[in-house]
Amino acid sequence: MIRFDKVSFSYNSKKILDNVDLYINNDEFLFVVGESGIGKTTLFKLMYFEEIPTSGTVFFENFSSDNIDVQEIPYLRRRIGVVFQDFKLMQDRDTFDNISLPLEIIGDKKDTIKKKVFDAASRVGLLDKLNKKPFDLSGGEQQRIAIARAIVNKPEVVIADEPTGNLDPIISMDILKLLNEINRRGTAVIIATHNFELVRKLRDKRIVQVKDQKLYEVKIRT
């Protein structure tokens, strides 16, 4: 589904990634681990073509960073749900409107939007919070809004960048279980984290580490 072929990326002459190869299968659950600022977010931006490699090629299904037209990128991104560490919610809109935003952008009809939002909210346990504004909710509930927004259009993959970075350990585990359940229903899930203890909770999953501009497969010791 997603493939990196000898991908390198530099920013302001500073090399972030060097000659990286990676293949992510349909329905896969992948942890991307590494210290803060090491290049995990850059790796994700390359996946949804917010950044283009300095050299090498990123493939997403039939899209290629070598020749993608700028007008094609919105269509690619409809197939990818992104969850940000800082939620990126609209504070002046309620939960329903935050979740429905991707559907409004692509022009879905109102009845379709309502059905999809209710389905996504149900999956993340927010049906009773649809009229609440983000500032009235806990950090864990706000992250659930972000996850619901990411899955509302039934993407093929959900990319979560430090989704538990601002949450306490108990809520973090709840979010991890939720993302695992989304994966079990057939959506590929890719999580970036610097929290190795969190990764140990799902040690059966595939893990890659960003280190020294490279990508390495990692096994968690039992």
Shape by Cα distribution? globular
Contiguous runs where pLDDT drops below 50 for at least 5 residues:
none
Integer average pLDDT: 95
Distance between the termini: 30 Å
Please outline the major beta sheet. Answer: 6 strands, mixed
Structural class: alpha/beta
Number of helices: 7
Notes on the protein architecture:
The chain is of the alpha/beta class and 222 residues long. It has a domain at 1-79 and 192-222: P-loop containing nucleotide triphosphate hydrolases (Rossmann fold, 3-Layer(aba) Sandwich), CATH 3.40.50. It has 7 helices and 10 strands. The chain has a 6-stranded mixed beta sheet with strand order 6-7-8-3-9-10, sandwiched between helices. Strands 2-1-4-5 form a 4-stranded antiparallel beta sheet, with helices on one face. Helix 3 packs across helix 4, helix 3 (95-106) runs parallel beside helix 5 and helix 5 packs parallel to helix 6. The longest helix is centred in the C-terminal third of the chain and has 16 residues, at 169-184. It starts with a strand and ends with a strand. The model has no long low-confidence stretch (mean pLDDT 95).
Give a quick summary of the entry.
The chain is α/β, with parallel strands linked by helices. It has seven helices and ten strands. A hairpin with a 2-residue loop joins strand 9 and strand 10.
